[in-house]
From TrEMBL:
GO terms for biological process: cellular response to oxidative stress. It holds the Pfam family GSHPx. Residues 1-182 form the Thioredoxin domain. The active site is at C35. This is Glutathione peroxidase. Belongs to the glutathione peroxidase family. It comes from the Bacteria. PANTHER family: GLUTATHIONE PEROXIDASE. It comes from Paranoxybacillus vitaminiphilus. The lineage of its organism: Bacteria, Bacillati, Bacillota, Bacilli, Bacillales. Gene3D superfamilies: Glutaredoxin (3.40.30.10). CDD domains: GSH_Peroxidase (cd00340). SUPFAM superfamilies: Thioredoxin-like. Keywords: Oxidoreductase, Peroxidase.
Length: 188
């Protein structure tokens, strides 16, 4: 099984298959407009602009499960990203990523890229862990997504390669994306 078996809804409600992205390296992100990590949209957009012509795509999924940081409609989420950060990569309909109503895609992502723990030498990771402990301790258990801006790297065959926690900035893992894209070029 790969991510290509899943369907998702665009912000306008239209259902699409993730098989539409076959052959591309993907970064799947749960996003929010009112989050401490929201400025990551800027660096995500830079990554997208740099690599989109090399079979790379970012898929954003707004989520309101963490501190109600995405309270508006699907259209509000898309407009916010475009107006404030110039986002041109796709922003889909809002989803839940944890709990009984978690979207099947995110259930699959969590299962295939388990939580590896927080790097407590990173001050932001330490603060994030304390914040989650205070606001939503249930998210600290197991492989649940810990907060907005958890990112999953998917290879060109739809396999989950790696999970990056919210405190991991796009510049920190750009090399992983570049390596996957380079290996893709060698195989063609």
């Amino acid at each position: 099984m790969s991510i290509y078996h899943f369907e998702v809804k665009k912000a306008n409600g239209q259902t699409i298959s993730l098989s539409d992205y076959k052959g591309k390296v993907l970064l799947i992100v749960n996003t929010a407009s009112k989050c401490h990590f929201t400025p990551q949209f800027q660096d995500l957009q830079k990554l997208y602009e740099k690599y989109r012509d090399h079979h790379f795509e970012i898929l954003g999924f707004p989520c309101n499960q963490f501190g109600e940081q995405e309270p508006g409609s699907n259209e509000d989420a898309v407009a916010f990203c475009q107006l404030n950060y110039g986002v041109t990569f796709p922003i889909f309909a809002k989803v839940e990523v944890n709990g009984d109503n978690a979207h099947p895609l995110f259930q699959y992502l969590k299962k295939n890229a388990p939580f590896r723990g927080f790097d407590e030498t990173n001050p932001t990771a330490k603060i994030l862990k304390l914040m989650i402990l205070d606001k939503a301790p249930e998210w600290l258990v197991g492989d649940e997504i810990k907060w907005n801006f958890t990112k999953f790297l998917i290879d060109q065959n739809g396999n989950v390669i790696r999970r990056y926690e919210p405190n991991e900035e796009p510049v920190d893992f750009e090399k992983d994306i570049a390596e996957l894209l380079a290996s893709q070029m060698q195989n063609h």
